[in-house]
Amino acid sequence: MEQYVIKGGNPLVGEVEIGGAKNAALAILAAAIMTDETVCVENLPDVRDIHVLLEAIEQIGARVEKISPSVVKINGSTIGDVSVEYEFIKKIRASYYLLGALLGKYKNAEVPLPGGCNIGSRPIDQHLKGFRAMGASVDIMHGAIVARAEELHGSHIFLDMVSVGATINIMMAASMAVGNTIIENAAREPHVVDVANFLNSMGANIKGAGTDVIRIKGVDKLHSTNYSIIPDQIEAGTFMFAAAATKGDIMVKNVIPKHLEATTAKLVEIGCEVEEFDDAVRVVASKRLRRTHVKTLPYPGYPTDMQPQIAVALSLAEGTSIVTESIFENRFKYADELSRMGADVKVEGNSAIIDGVNKLTGARVSAPDLRAGAALVIAGLAAEGITIVDDIVYIQRGYEHFEEKLRNLGAEIEKVADEKEIQKFKLRVG
Ligand SMILES: CC(=O)N[C@H]1[C@@H](OP(=O)(O)OP(=O)(O)OC[C@H]2O[C@@H](n3ccc(=O)[nH]c3=O)[C@H](O)[C@@H]2O)O[C@H](CO)[C@@H](O)[C@@H]1O
Ligand SMILES: C=C(OP(=O)(O)O)C(=O)O
Asked: Which end of the chain, N or C, is less surrounded by CB atoms within 10 Å?
């Protein structure tokens, strides 16, 4: 099992180039099979979740041609099987997008219940409610969702809660339904807009993405496209908080600053300087961070996927901060790990109460999920001494070349495979 070993204490300084948005890319790759023509997707992040989804797409018979680590061509004309194997699906959450894509195109799909990070119970009732409203029969059989329809027809769907996954899945199926669909209380995340733009570039007719009412006019056929995915606002935000926690100065390049506004606002509140450019943001942290409160919310609120990262910065801030998680019920699993590094974090219900300490000290910790894992790496970079982060397979789900990008900013971090390599690292860094 691979681990990260980190010698903390260096302010991170320099430039980092952000990759494509994982959570947009996963939906877009699934949607790419909805035409029989060849689709070219660019600016893909080189991360494990993408590799797993591409394997699943190949397994159902589509042709996948990797042009480079960030560019792929997909042709869905050879799909012979609408049932996806559990082997691929258990590893990722976004496998559920194959349901909307296959149901939209073939009116027939069989996809095992999804995996992904264990950050809450994560039901998908709203996805299924949407498919049923469009005329599909949906059953759970032997651990898989089986959805079939004679014909999918447009419908007026009210989501009970703001769900990124349900909004995108319904949007995909409705793109090839007969008639008009309206999704009310839709998610407004940038990746919802990106998927709508992608589908529209294939000939779909979707209006209103980015607002809470999305209108979709079904079309008979979708066609080929060439599409470049938006930058990953969560990867960008993670580096922004790495600058804050290590008292660094990082130019985060290839971003859409508008997508980062909630993160930027919090960084300014806690005492960082943030300078915005057309496609970059610079974060400078020169003094002790200040306390704040933060509550996760659907976009444009503060993202739940950035919650552990701000908590690490606040664990080093002056005063008491409260971090409230309102989307997922199990997203504080990093708290005990962070406490092992000297942080003062108490979890009460859906809030973490953080009393800032003067310093963190390196320890052996374990990544409980993707974003919490990245946050523990930031903690290690800010801490005095050596930190070992176990279970980095979670981090590899969503951060491309994480250790290389951090090393370019002056971090002392290495990916190691065993104790011998940890000892070697310790000898080298002294
Ligand atoms: C692959 C992907 O893109 N994952 C992201 C996606 O997850 P995901 O699409 O799973 O998250 P949702 O936006 O759907 O979930 C929001 C809330 O709604 C609840 N809910 C959702 C659907 C449903 O049918 N029933 C239901 O009760 C969830 O349990 C959660 O409490 O959006 C989350 C919220 O921004 C992010 O943290 C994840 O990184
Ligand atoms: C929770 C995440 O991913 P997933 O929904 O795929 O588990 C994430 O990207 O932070």
From this structure: C
Q: Using an 8 Å Cβ cutoff, are 247 and 285 in contact?
A: yes
Q: Is 129 in the pocket of ligand 1 (CB under 6 A)?
A: no
Domain boundary among 206, 228, 250: 228
Kindly report the CATH number assigned to the domain that includes residue 371: 3.65.10.10
Domain boundary among 228, 244, 259: 228
The tokens 């589509």 sit on which residue? Answer: 62
* pLDDT at 116 > cutoff 80: no
Is ipTM strictly over 0.90? yes
How long a stretch of residues is the chain?
430
Residues flagged as binding site: 22-23, 93, 122-126, 305, 327
201 plus 341 within the same structural domain: no
Looking at the fold, whether 198 and 215 belong to one and the same domain comes out as yes
Pair (7, 55) in one structural domain: no
Compute the distance from residue 140 Cα to the ligand 2 centre, in Å: 23
Residue 117 annotated in active site: yes
Number of domains observed in the structure of the chain:
2
- For the stretch 338-357, pLDDT in tens is 999 999 999 999 999 999 99
Q: Quick one: DSSP state of residue 302?
A: B
Closest CA to 373 of 347, 344, 403, 353: 403
Structure tokens belonging to residue 183: 């999704």
| Residue ranges around ligand 2 (CB below 6 Å) | 23, 92-94, 116-117, 119, 305, 370-371, 398
Distances from the Cα of 332 to the Cα of 12, 131, 313, 385, angstroms: 26, 33, 15, 24
pLDDT digits (tens, 9 = 90+) for 279-322: 999 999 999 999 999 999 999 999 999 999 999 999 999 999 99
Domain that holds residue 249: 3-19+231-429
249 shares a domain with 209: no
Sheet hosting strand 180-184, strand order edge to edge: 156-158, 180-184, 213-217, 205-207
Mark whether 241 and 352 lie in a shared domain.
yes
User: Do residues 225 and 40 make contact, with C-beta atoms less than 8 angstroms apart?
Assistant: yes
Question: Residue 24 has what pLDDT?
Answer: 98
Distance CA 98, CA 145 (A): 11
For CA atoms 125, 127, 128, 129, the dihedral sign is positive
Are residue 138 and residue 15 in the same domain, yes or no? Answer: no
